[in-house]
Protein 1
Amino acid sequence: MSRSENSPSDSSAFDALVAATVRPLTGNAEQRLSAIAVLSENANPDHPAAAETIARWDKVDAKKRPFPWSATLYVIAFGALITAVLWQRDEIRFAAEFHDVSFFDPPDAILPEGLNLQQKLLLGDPKLGGLENAEDLYFSDPENPAYFAEYAIHYSNHFSKMPPGFLETAARIDPENSFFLYLAAGRMDYDAIKLEQRTGPAPKPRIVNGVRLSPPPHERDYKINDPATYARSLKLIEKASQLPVFRTYGNTMIEARMRCFPEAQSIMQRTHAALFFYSQTSGVISIRKVSDTLSARAQELSRAGDKEGFLKLVDMRHKLISRLVGNRDSNLINELVNMVVAAGTSEYFHYAADRLGMVELAGKFGEENRLFREMADRRRIRSSDEFEWVTERAALLSGLTLPMIMRQSETPPPITLADLSPQRYADHAFGMRLGLTAVALSLLIFALPVFLFRYVFPASLRKPPPA
């Protein structure tokens, strides 16, 4: 007998039946309403055993429900997985930092803790750009030539010109340093002169031991796009050659920043310091353009037949090369720039001396340029097996530096597998921890929907549709 067939006198018995039956579903309104609807259509309170059934149901419902062990185990597992992921957050951050450095982007948030104000200014704010950090550091001590040099380099790289009052400031705080004048001259000549493209058929490349080498040297013409800027640059180079000192302050700044990092107690601390210094740039690159100015002037003087002016220019070149080679703030990038400056000027000074009939100078510069070209050829011809095995077996960080050093060095440093092993072991440990973190994170991601489906989603969503 359905609910619709019951008389009004039976309503109290029926309500008691429904209330007792749906009481366990009090926490789930959807299931409770569904159960009431089913009972309303199908329950029979006049059944002889109805009262006994209701009493038995009340007795069962009054018992203490069993402890939800399965749900508790899920919660414990979630907590363990989340703890494992958070515990390895340094490894996750390191992986992101290494990716940034590999693509020459500045890494973020790798600075040590407990820095004072001056140390924070030295290392900079990872959220700011290089120019903003260099500007803050410089204005904290405007009379510091090292800070001024770094600020000027970042400013010129950002705006393609030197900061306002650059020469006046340099003359005031570091009057005997020629670096600032060379830096200004190199920045001026970025657009003032241009090396023309080759005319006629392209020379055939040289093939030695199956390696494609640069074609034989061939003189090209320099075009002066801005004679006034070109003349100012020459005057700066001449004035710089008369100053007694050449300091770029690169290593000075590196040493000051190294003191901000505590002595490493773990591979992660050592890695953070290494990543920071790998992201630093060199300020000597702008001086590369000075070689074009000198070469263009040598070509100009030789075509004008001005031997006296050319000899004066030779002295200016000699002083520049001597200062670049003797720079105590040098590094690998600086050495590569030095080689480009020396090799490029030796070629065009050879053409100029030969055109002027200065046989001795022409022979000197020709021999110098020949040695530079042979050195470049040897680096190209050298078997790649000498350093490719290092690339394959080196650790994450040493793999960024050792192959480059071996390619650029005339006599690469001897490297053995024993030299690479300590960092490789550290990489293996890091990889294992990062892998376990990835597994824990994956389990967390996949276990969450299982838990929700089992304990949170309504039962109607878990049941298959009726056939």
Protein 2
Amino acid sequence: MKRMLLMFMIVMVSCTVCHADSDERYAIVTDKDNIQSEVRGLHSSSQYNDRWENIYDPFICIYDSSLCIAVPINHIISLRLENGKYLMEYIYGGKNLKFSGLLDEYVKFSGETDFGDFSLPGDTLLSITFSSPPVEEPQAEQAEYPHVIELENGTRVPVHIDSRTDHFYDTTGYIMGGETYTHHYTDFRFKRGQAELTVPFEDIASLEFTFEGPYVAPGEVVVTLKNGKTTTGQLYAADTMEFGGLSGVCEKGYFYIHGRNIKKVLFVPEPQQ
């Protein structure tokens, strides 16, 4: 009797494990040869992955001419190539959203299949779908966007800015080349003469940029404080510490905007004319 009871318990545990495995959400990845793979634990790696410090789950980022959006994989409905661009459908803030753009040219998709480790270069991807619906992010429904970023093309994007990124290219120990390090800050840094100034976000009313070329530096910034004081300074030279951009959340999800695409940042509403 004890032996039969033990065998029954083993069968029940085994069935429970099998059921859990069958319920696991997995990705169905199709490459440009129309070969499909069922991939568990899908994640991506790209040069943009370090632009956010507040996304703790694996995500895929996609960008258009000015805006880069990162979507946690467990919120994605599908990603597919259409007319030379990738269309991502996903859930954010209780809404079904779409964003069309490009993948980073260095992105790679990885995971596990029944036939071993999976790795696929991003430029060979045709589509990604999933075995079950995505998971909603509850806190996204309470999101507020108190800041405004005005892009170079005049578009204004309501956002909540979480951090500024700086990219530092270090050649120490390298005979050729070097390594780029990304840091996140909740302040803004610029030069005024030979002095380096650091202003916390909470003290800033607005930032307005003027660029002299295709890069962030050399460039000029007008910093206006909430107390009404204004000064003009210079952005860091590109070969030292570069103003990379701003990241946070907007109505389309987690965003990153490169500094060169930003014309103006409003931390407080502009006074009515």
